[in-house]
Amino acid sequence: MPADDGGSLRVGVVRHGLVPGVLKMARVYRKQGHAIGLARCYTRRLLQPPSFVMQARIRIAVIALGATVLVLGSALGIVAARFDPNAYKSAIVERVQEKTRRTLTIGGDIKLALYPRLGVNLGKASLSELGGKGEFAALDSVRLSFALMPLLLRQEVVVDRIELRGMRATLVRETDGSMNIDDLTAARVKTGSAAQAAGNAGAGPARVRFAVDSIRVDNAHLRFDDRKAGRVFDIARLNIDSGPLAHGVPSRVALSANIGVDKPAFNTVLIFDSGFSLDRDTRRVAMTGLDANLDLSSRAGIESRAKLKGNIEIDFGQESIAAALNGKIDDSAVSGKGALRNGILQLDIDIDRVDLARYRARAVPGAAGEVPASGSAGDSAPDQPIDLSALARLRASGTLQVGELTVGGVRAANVHAVLLAEAGKTSIKPLSATLYGGNGNGAVSIDFADDAANPRMTLVQDLRGISLGPLLLDATGTTPLSGRGDVQLDLHTRGASSGAMLEALGGTAALRLREGAIGGIDLGRLVREAKAAAGVGSSAESTSFSELSASFRIDGGIAHNTDVAASTALLRIGGEGRFDLAKGTVDARLRCTVAAGPAGQDGPAAAVLGGLTVPVALSGPLTRMAWQVDVAALGSEAAHKLGTSTPGGGKDKAKEKARDALGGLFAH
């Protein structure tokens, strides 16, 4: 509205003789009232009872109030009948164009309203981008209500209620950080400074003061195109209902909205109610007693619900947000503090328990881009897509405490992690926990420097005193190896799915175990019975050991080993092999040296073959390993041992003794 609108309204009221008449009546009343008061004070004070004086004053006040209301009502009626705000539409449009170089389009009529509040109703309107190209914002209707008494008595335009319906706006942040509202915010600062200077100088016939009693926003739609971060935020069905917006005045606000983000793709329905207060001097908003509900869903099939309470403080001067919240996220109790300052997120979170499998991306059947299962049917878990792009631009630090954590079936407790994310690299160091009777310490890092879409991930972990069998069972569903001891991992990989990560896995691993077992084959039985040269193991079979150690070099998802060493009551085992971690298969050669013992203690073979090395080949899936004894090598070594141990024995006699001792192991 033009700056002289307040003056025009004033002129209209004065022109019809209303205000001068009221003022004249007031002056006469004051003079007469003063004289009567003096006379009555000294001549009739003792003659009139107090009740009569009080009644007289009330009657006078009621008459004066009625006269005032009558005058004001008449004035408003005349103004509404003769004042046409649409006459100012062209002036308003020109003023906006002059000041902002944006085009304002007012499609509907501007209407004055007298009841229940003095106000202005505006129909459809839109504002263009800078230079007049494209639409920046639009709305279906807006209503501004004004406080009446400040307007009449102090010539102040006080906006006490704002109602917006069907508002739409698009904010854009370019790659250089500039925004499509920079010209408006700069103009606002400049205008505000000029207005303050004018106010100090005592210039200007009218002032505009915002003391908003309430704001109502219905079905708004805001879009934030953040080209610098490479994301688009979409806020739809935004509804806001707030109390007073005034400096230092406690108030409340209720809000609901659908919020969507394209990278990573997710949508959340937000509903919250909160008390709040504004500090105009420090440009801060304090939200207290916040009660928020969020329903989140993603294109990857992740769904989550949260109910949180707490406090939030927003500092517009420092462009920062600080929050302290607690509540429930799905089945987890969560409490934490966080702050966002200069684009850096600071978090300290405490969770009682969480199962990350609930938040694992799942391919929707029949949807485009669905990733099929990898490996042989029934031999491996379905390939799971993994999208870590949300971490590429993360700048954050903080701590995480989890009472009970489950990751891919693996369970840990008392988890403590320290997060640091900057310059395209996210690391968690240290990462410690208690698990499977022992404890672990290490670090995890994700580096986006080489390939933002396919980051390099590393895991360093030192596990001490753990029970390996239950860990492998929870992680893979099988127990190819068990025992208690230590495991060291230094691994790296990259990939967009769990299968791709296994196939790209590299690094080193080492283990040292006590009192365990090798699952899938009973080497002791093979040696004791010495009946067959080949067979297939099963989950019901195992080889118990007192000690086992091995180290691995991992490349392309294949673990290579050359130093397996294990001890059993009957055998001393050594060997080498390769393990395909993605397919879950093994190809190994073991050398099982029979420990010498009393005749008959471990069957005929042990009595004869004490000190003899039995070569065993293992191959196939870990759940059903095929084994085979190297007959030729075993026969030659057995014959040599028996021949040298029997005085006067020849070669043929040694072979015959070996056949007798080993039963059906050799072909005749």
From TrEMBL:
GO CC aspect terms: plasma membrane
Record-annotated membrane-spanning stretches: 60-81
Secretion signal span: none
A GO biological-process term: regulation of protein targeting to membrane
Pfam family for this entry, one: AsmA
Keyword entries, A-Z: Membrane, Transmembrane, Transmembrane helix
Domain of life from the UniProt record: Bacteria
Sequence ranges assigned to domain AsmA in this UniProt record: 54-266, 400-563
Protein name: AsmA family protein
Species this protein is from: Massilia atriviolacea
